[in-house]
Amino acid sequence: EIVMTQSPATLSVSPGERATLSCRASQSVSSNLAWYQQKPGQAPRLLIYGASTRATGIPGRFSGSGSGTEFTLTISSLQSEDFAVYYCQPYNNWPLHTFGQGTKLEIK
Amino acid sequence: EVQLVQSGAEVKKPGESLKISCKASGYIFTSYWIAWVRQMPGKGLEWMGIIYLGDSDTRYSPSFQGQVTISADKSIRTAYLQWSSLKASDTAMYYCARRAVVGYFDYWGQGTLVTVSS
Questions:
Q1: Touching check for B45 and chain A: CB below 8 Å?
Q2: Residues 6+ apart with CB under 8 A from A2
Q3: Cβ <8 Å between B104 and A34
Q4: Which of A7, A12, A53, B81 can bridge A108 by disulfide, Cβ–Cβ 3.0-4.6 Å?
């Protein structure tokens, strides 16, 4: 089983600043990694797949990078609507689809 | 437009049974897998299992194997998650999600809140 570790657990950033979230896999997942955003009271939403491809409708300030075991989600200039919880998920570990434990992005 | 519409909130007592649903529309239902994801209050996302709507092939997370049953009725484009005997620890929000061909979850239902309390 691939274990995903996200860091930090909580990240405090001011609006307009850059946020960098990390996700580490216990073994290589190549580029088969997705990021999801979940706002309070809402279902998760797909942000990034293939480690770096934005899903439909996702603003350009969101970017993903990495491959193998180390991945990063960067939000270049935080907007108020970006404060949420972010999860990573590998999807090449069939049939398992385990999520990372999440990073809460909060307003500083 | 792809949509996954889940059944409404449920309040049950320990020991009762329950079946919640996820109705799909806007795509070829039988060509995709549907996953179920649990979110306990204040906690993260836990993948429970997944079902292929074409032939009902089902896979479970080891953590949920034997605890729940995932099924589907392709004639009405609906996937189900059921419990035979609920526990207080089953209290959570449950989401269904469509698994894209490549593997990520591209569409999500709105969630079904299940509350189990005596």
A1: yes
A2: A25, A26, A27, A29, A90, A93, A96, A98
A3: yes
A4: A12
Please name the amino acid found at residue B112.
Answer: T
CA distance B62 to B40: 17
Output b/e per residue, B52-71; b: 16+ Cβ within 10 A: bbeeeebbbbeebeebbebe
pLDDT tens for each residue of A69-87? 999 999 999 999 999 999 9
Question: To the nearest 10°, the Cα dihedral for A83, B34, B47, B43?
Answer: 40
Contact call for residues B94 and B19 (beta carbons, < 8 A): no
With vertex at residue B35, the alpha carbon angle to CA B43 and CA A44, rounded to the nearest 5 degrees, is 45
- The per-residue pLDDT for range B23-57, each reduced to its tens digit, is 999 898 888 999 999 999 999 999 999 999 889 99
Chain CA centroid to CA A69, Å: 14
Tokens representing B37?
């994801």
Residue with tokens 């409404």: B8
A95 close to A35: Cβ distance less than 8 angstroms: no
Do residue B104 and residue A95 have CB atoms under 8 angstroms apart? no
Contact pairs from chain A to chain B, CB under 8 Å: 62
Whether residue A44 and residue B45 make contact (CB cut-off 8 A), yes or no, is yes
